[in-house]
Amino acid sequence: MEHELFAVAAVMAGLSILGFLFSVLGLRFLVSLLVIAAWILLTNTIISSGLFLLLHNVVADTCVAMGDWVAHPQAHTALDDILPCVDVATANESLYRSQEVTSQLVALVNNVVVNISNRNFPPGLRPLYFNQSGPLMPVLCNPFNPDMSPRRCAPGEVDFGSAAREWKRFECQTTGPPGSELCATPGRVTPAAYGQMTAATSVSKGLYEFSPFLVQLQDCSFVRETFTSITNYNCPGLEQYSRDVYVGLVVISAGVMLSVVFWMVHTRHRRRRAMRKQL
Questions:
Q1: Which of 74, 88, 138, 167 is least enclosed, having the fewest CB within 10 Å?
Q2: Cα dist. 50→6, 13, 83, 209, 253 in Å?
Q3: All residues at 6 or more sequence positions from 15 whose CB lies less than 8 Å from its CB, including other chains
Q4: Is pTM, for the whole model, over 0.70?
Q5: How far apart are CA 10 and CA 18, in angstroms?
């Protein structure tokens, strides 16, 4: 934008100089053309100045509203209706419930792995028996203890990121109608069961990874951090920049307006003098 302002100032200065020369030389037609061009440019400059003044006021009001909301989180501010935040206790309860769901999904998947896939049932015990065989599948790591505190993965467990890849090695090729498939090759899980297990794992992974961020959105802590950064680092420079731009445009507009008035007055004065000499 700085280069555009310099270009506008240069054009306006050029018009002012040309208008002054043409008016001194008495070139009324060229002065009239310059007056028309100058008024067009002046109109555009004034409109641009008004837009930047509006931008400056919007930026200033927005920054004040964000700063007030950050400084007084319990008070009723202008942003409360736009950002309805819940209290910390409710947000923490939501996080706890999401952790419970994650832990329950992991337990469900591990129940299938331990009690079905890794068991060798007799052929008559359908549908638990599907000719599963081979090395045992690893269980899925539960990231939470029973009290929902963080838990480290035990040796032999697979985490959310590697579960699908590791379990793929235990998938068998099947024969038979859908719903009654039997493994035709060594393996501990059918393709259908593998798909269901990986889907449940993906849901657990999503809850585990994004629940803290969603809770930050819910209690507005993430928004508060963002607003603090904007008000401290972006607002001062943006307010100064928008103010400088519209002030510069106003100065340029005022200078061109005075130049146009001077051209018109000087040209009319020369025309009157010429008429007096003729008389």
A1: 74
A2: 18, 21, 30, 47, 11
A3: 34, 37, 38, 41, 256, 259
A4: no
A5: 12
Distance between CA 61 and CA 58 in Å, rounded?
A: 5
**217 against 176, higher pLDDT:** 176
Q: Measure Cα distances from 271 to 24, 25, 151, 278 in Å.
A: 11, 12, 95, 11
Domain range list for the chain: 2-80+229-278, 88-219
How many other C-beta atoms lie within 10 A of the C-beta of residue 211? Answer: 19
Is the pLDDT at 1 greater than 60? The verdict is no
Element (H or E) spanning 73, and its range?
none
Q: Provide DSSP, 185-237.
A: SSBSB-HHHHHHHHHHHHHHHHHHHHHHHHHHHHTTHHHHHHHHHIIIIIHHH
Quick one: pLDDT at residue 83?
A: 61
178: left (phi over 0), alpha (psi -120 to 50) or beta: beta
33-78 pLDDT, tens digit each: 777 777 777 787 788 778 878 887 888 888 887 777 777 766 666 5
Cis check: omega of the bond before 135, within 30 degrees of 0: no
